[in-house]
């Protein structure tokens, strides 16, 4: 009889345990959803205000000091200072570079991904690593870009993956086929 009582109590407790697990899962989901939405809002500010406005002193609001950035050309840089230098270079030959929209935004807790459009005009000389320069063509560009980011517990990115078609970019500014 005691065995039957134990089994009955155990079976009766199972739905309550499942409900507790469901509640925990729901709470974890809600927390991850809220966190992801906060990261996407930070990312919108990053691209639409900080990046577009070249407010490099504010990049630390979204990027950690030791951020690792994976570039479309295969390079990987470490640290916010290296990232700022690369971003400044982009503006050196296209000072009107901007990102004004993210039509696609995805998030899952500490991971986000956005798709947007980067546009500008090749209006200043492009300095190359060997010291030579390419004269500006005056041609505008508009390319799809995507960023996949991992966010650390402090609310800044510790890793960022940047994607766009460099061949399409070069063709649009008059430097490629």
What can you see in these coordinates?
The protein has 177 residues and is an alpha+beta fold. The chain has helices spanning 2-51, 80-93, 166-172; strands at 63-70, 76-78, 98-99, 104-108, 111-121, 126-127, 133-134, 140-151, 157-164. The strands form two sheets. Strands 1, 2, 3, 4, 5, 8 and 9 form a seven-stranded mixed sheet that branches. The protein has a two-stranded antiparallel sheet with strand order 6-7. A hairpin with a 5-residue loop joins strand 1 and strand 2 (76-78). The protein starts with a helix and ends in a 5-residue tail after the last helix.
Helix content: 40-55%
What global shape is seen?
Answer: elongated
Strand content: 25-35%
The N- and C-terminal alpha carbons lie at a distance of: 85 Å
Structural class by SSE content = alpha+beta
Order of helices and strands: HEEHEEEEEEEH
Query: Which stretches are poorly predicted, pLDDT < 50 over at least 5 residues?
Result: 1-12
Q: How many beta-strand segments?
A: 9
Largest sheet: 7 strands, mixed
H/I helix tally: 3
How much is the average pLDDT? 89
Rg, Å, rounded: 24 Å
Sum this structure up briefly.
By secondary structure, the protein is an alpha+beta fold.
């Amino acid at each position: 009889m005691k065995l039957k009582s134990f089994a009955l109590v155990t079976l009766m407790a199972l739905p309550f345990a499942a409900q507790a697990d469901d509640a925990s899962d729901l709470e974890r989901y809600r927390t991850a959803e809220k966190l992801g939405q906060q990261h996407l809002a930070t990312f919108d500010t990053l691209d639409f205000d900080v990046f577009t406005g070249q407010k490099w002193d504010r990049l630390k609001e979204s990027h950690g000091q030791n951020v690792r950035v994976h570039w479309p050309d295969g390079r990987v840089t470490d640290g916010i200072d290296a990232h700022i230098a690369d971003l400044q270079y982009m503006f050196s030959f296209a000072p009107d570079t901007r990102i004004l929209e993210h039509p696609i935004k995805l998030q899952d807790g500490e991971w986000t991904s956005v798709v947007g459009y980067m546009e500008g005009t090749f209006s200043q000389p492009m300095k190359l690593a060997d010291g030579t320069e390419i004269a500006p063509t005056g041609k505008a560009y508009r390319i799809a870009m995507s960023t996949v980011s991992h966010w650390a517990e402090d609310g800044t990115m510790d890793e960022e993956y940047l994607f766009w078609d460099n061949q399409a970019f070069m063709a649009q500014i008059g430097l490629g086929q």
